[in-house]
Design goal:
- With 205 residues, this protein is of the alpha/beta class.
- The chain folds into 2 domains: 104 residues, Rossmann fold, CATH 3.40.50; 96 residues, Rossmann fold (3-Layer(aba) Sandwich), CATH 3.40.50.170.
- It is 34% helix and 24% strand.
- The protein has a 7-stranded mixed beta sheet, sandwiched between helices. Strands 8-9 form a two-stranded antiparallel ribbon.
- Helix 1 packs across helix 6.
- It starts with a strand and ends with a strand.
- The structure holds 5-O-phosphono-beta-D-ribofuranosylamine.
- The site of 5-O-phosphono-beta-D-ribofuranosylamine has 13 residues, from helix 1, strand 5 and helix 6.
Length: 205
């Protein structure tokens, strides 16, 4: 079977992208990264890609008059490389309906909480403020809302008595690095079956 071509959108550090690259290299994920696109010219993720054999480029929102033109430029680069699945890995922008329609059902995101709890920014800090004893991470398909799309996989992580936002984030991030490649592998193996909001995982044949 042909490898699924994925396109990664990232704005910052790029540790989830690294976990995806590691999973591909280890043979745990049968995919090919067609392109990495950052909206931030200074993003660490671009530096990370400097020596790698993966195309990486920056599409800077400030160079475009409108959000739609910016998103059209991203979509064009993805289509040029025949990207089949768009993977958001710390991409700090909400995608509009225009972009989502162009890749309907083919955009994934990872969020550092057990959704629907604590969507949006600073999810780990929100969890500490609320006082939950368990948090975690969620991989989901992207819809037009903020972290509201159908859930694919979740992993729980304990909140410890002396946690700060930093220590909790680190524990969750460790789980993210395992969960995201697993969700991508399920997609690439054709094992995700959507029924409304419910994403069922089909057994391996
Ligand atoms: C992760 O915590 C992810 O859940 C959130 O943004 C962060 C990205 O981290 N969406 P990195 O850039 O992958 O290191």
């Amino acid at each position: 079977m042909n490898k699924t071509v994925i396109g990664v959108l990232a704005s910052g550090r790029g540790s989830n992208l690294q976990a995806i690259i590691d999973a591909i290299q280890a043979g745990r994920l049968d995919a090919k990264i067609g392109v990495v696109i950052s909206d931030n010219p200074d993003a660490n993720v671009l530096k990370r890609m400097a020596g790698a054999d993966i195309q990486a480029l920056c599409i800077d929102r400030r160079q475009f008059a409108s959000r739609q033109q910016f998103e059209a430029a991203i979509a064009e680069e993805l289509n040029l490389r025949h990207v089949e699945l768009v993977v958001l890995a710390g991409f700090m922008r909400i995608l509009s309906q225009y972009f989502i329609d162009r890749f309907a059902g083919k955009i994934m995101n990872i969020h550092p909480s057990l959704l629907p709890a604590f969507p949006g920014e600073n999810a780990q800090q929100q969890a500490l403020h609320y006082g939950v004893k368990v948090s975690g991470c969620t991989v989901h398909f992207v819809d037009e809302g903020m972290d509201t799309g159908p859930i694919i996989l979740q992993e729980a992580v304990p909140v410890l008595e002396d946690d700060t936002a930093e220590t909790l984030s680190e524990r969750i991030l460790h789980a993210e690095h395992i969960l995201y490649p697993r969700a991508l592998a399920l997609y690439c193996e054709g094992r995700l079956h959507s029924e409304g909001r419910r994403v069922r995982i089909i057994d391996k044949e």
